[in-house]
Specification:
Elements (H helix, E strand, L loop, with lengths): L2 E5 L2 E4 L4 E8 L7 E7 L6 E7 L5 E3 L7 E6 L4 E6 L8 E8 L7 E2 L3 E6 L1
Parallel strand pairs: 2-11
Antiparallel strand pairs: 1-3, 3-8, 4-5, 4-9, 5-6, 7-8, 9-10, 9-11
Amino acid sequence: QVQLVESGGGLVQAGGSLRLSCAASARSLSRYTMGWFRQAPGKERAFVASITWTVGSTDYADSVKGRFIISRDNAKNMVYLQMNSLKPEDTAVYYCASRLPLSQYLDWGQGTQVTVSS
């Protein structure tokens, strides 16, 4: 089981940037894939990006490719989501999550609100 705590959300104007952080606590994260998801009002939670802990392989939703960058700091057990060129449609609660190979995302943080004003 992984404990996850997000931070870094806030209010930003369209075109601006924010960096979200996720602090992960576990015995070992080496086998995990870490993900960011978001849920906008009235919508289902949606995948944003993921990164494998050991190799650092990344994956992105089409809607954020070229604007968002996921990264991790193995020494600090931190995962980051750098969000650039933000749009009003990026407004959502952003969640950090983790999963083991061939498993669903089972561990979730409490979420952090990101609001992008037009």
